[in-house]
Structures are given as C-alpha cells and as structure tokens.
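Schema walk-through. Below, the input block comes first and the output block second. Nothing else is stored per chain. Lengths vary across the set, and this one has 332 residues.
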Amino acid sequence: MDKPSITPGLLTTREEMKKLFGGGTQGGIIPSDTTSNILIYVDHDSGKKYGYEDGWLAEEDELGPVFEYTGQGTRGEQTFLGRNGSRNAAVLYHADTGKSLRVFMAAGRVSDPKSAAKQQRYIGEFELDSNQPYTVREANDENGERRRIIVFRLRPKGDFERITKDAISRAEATDANPVSADVVAGKMLEPKMVKPRKSQASESRRAAQPSFIADLRQSELRASYLAELKSQQHEVFAYQIKIAGTTTILKTDVYDATTHELYSVRGEASREEVRMAIGQLKDYARHIKPRGLTLSILLPAPPQDDLVDLLHTEGIDIVYRSDHEYMRNPAK
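--- output ---
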C-alpha cells in the first residue's frame, strides 16, 4: 500500500484527512491508529480565547524556522500524563513511535452553507526541535484561571508552506508579567520520567529530547532554593517577558520579590555557565521594574577565583550550595 501523501498549501477538510490518514475529526491533536501519522490542527481564533497564539515565530536560528503549537487541554494544567495528557505525550514521543507530525491551519468555512466545518490548509510535515522540544508558559484556561501550558517547538521536515498570516503576532510593547515559579523549570512531568521503558538505559531518551543530566541538576538546585526562600516567608515567582517588535517570549529564573532580587540558576559552576548567566541577568533586568534590583547567580558549588572576580566586576552576587546550606558572596 502506498504511503499517504499531500502537498503543502493544499486546501482540504478534517473529514478528507480522516479518510486519507485515519484518526478522528475532533480536537487539535489526532493520532492515527491506521497510519504512522499524528495530525495537528491549528486555529488562530480558538487559541486567542485561551491567551495563546500558535504559528511561525518571526525569529529564526541557525537551524531555521520554528512553528509553535500549544498542547491539548483547555482547563487546568496541561500535562503529558494520564488520559488528559495522552495526546500531548503522543507528540512528545512521536520520534520513538515512528509517527510523522502533519500540521494544518484553519482557513475559513467550507463552501457548503449547510456545513459548519472549516477548510484546513496543509502546512507540511514537522518534527520536534532536537534542542528544545517544548517550553512551558503560563496562560488562562477556559475559566479564566492561570495555568501552565505546554508549547511545542516544531521544525519543518521537507517541503512546507510559510506565509505571513500564519505567523504569531509581534508584541506591540515590551511587557514583563509575573508568573508562577513553577513555570521557570520549563519541564512538565513526563511518562518516561515516571516509568522508563525496561529496554532502555536509564539515561536513554527519545531522539528529540535534550540531555537531562545538567537540566536535572539545575532543576533540583532551583527547587531546593525555592523551598529555602519560601521557608523564610519570601514571595517568589518569575517573569514572562514579551519583547516589543518580536514574537520572542523570555522566562527569567527565580525572582525574590521580598528582596527585589533576580537569580540565574546554573547546573554547573563552569566559565561557560557563568558567562551565560551574566548575559541573561543583564538582558532580563532591563525589563523588570522598579529598576535597581540585585542580580545574583545560584550555583551548585563555589566558582573559581577568576570567575568570582568576573561576577563581582559585573555587580553580581554569588550564592552557592555548601553541604546543605546556601552561602552568599556579595558583589558589594
């Protein structure tokens, strides 16, 4: 049997795609049970009701363009776990299961006046970004409650259609919004983190997932320090920053509102990590008001003397873990 094939730019319907690829006609993520495909349907109008917008980022990197797609779930926290998260998990592990991600964009009503169905324009076949498969943000659910959402980062695989109206809107002004500190971690609990496959080594991951060794160390340090600050009755959160004229959304690490202090949390005390922290802190601090906040780097161990001098020259405090305590080496 020939493999089902369509060309980017094709106008079709969910019903026609069900006939071609299998699966259903309801929902944004539709795994097929008869072909090796997962159909992803995007609707700008629907997404905006819940505080997000899917589509092409205006900015490209060395790997090319990125298409952002928000996971399934309109009420409460989005997840990869259980029945509610099964379709998000299907996208996350599509490389493991040999599934292709095929993306469609809603393109107005079909010509039949008796039908409420929408036309779907085929964008192309995609795969998850190998460096950052997804990010976590905060948005409103269908009841107006703040919750964490999963935003997949898709890369085109083969031919694709990229037109202006499919792009995410550029921010009109720079805006820094406080969000839950849980958003900072950037990871949601995944099925394989709960119960890895017996046939895989403990550090084995799907093709489109970054190494978790440094990430887990960084996440553990962040969680431990957040617990420490909360035990001292500090108010802690993070900032989600939209940059004017771009589609970029930045997320800070820990922000301590009690001391007006912004942290960059790193998993290693290396020169590369310290340099990255300096750049992040200087970049983010410009957008947080009131000005004059304390900049700090949180490390799992004390850095070497030359890096201490570098950080202090930049006016950045150093906080590091020593046994089960946190030590501070202030810049001033």
